[in-house]
Amino acid sequence: MIELTSKQRKFLEKSAQPMSPLVLIGGAGVTEEQIKQIQAVIKIHELIKVKFNEFKDEKKELARAIEEKTDSTLVRIIGNVAIFYKEAEKMADRKFAKGLLKA
Description:
By secondary structure, the protein is of the alpha+beta class. Helices cover 42% and strands 19% of the residues. It has a single domain, classed as 2-Layer Sandwich (Translation Initiation Factor IF3), CATH 3.30.110. Strands 1-2-4-3 form a four-stranded mixed β-sheet, sandwiched between helices. Helix 2 links the parallel strand 1 (23-25) and strand 2 (47-52).
């Protein structure tokens, strides 16, 4: 997890706006299989959206659990969608590094 400034969060929120949620959390809650799926997807995309179809009252707790288990950063929860960011390991794969430095 990295600490983001408010400007960096705004930049990532803006970047995530046109994206569709790549992972849906349903009636089974957050399973180990979904954690693995989130880890795989965030490794490729760096910035992802996760939609909560169920557990809408518990989405903050579930989002924090996802953040810890995937070692990502929760950017923001908007409605029933959480935005997560995890910087790519290789510098060449980092899509948002320049924007985050400017923010």
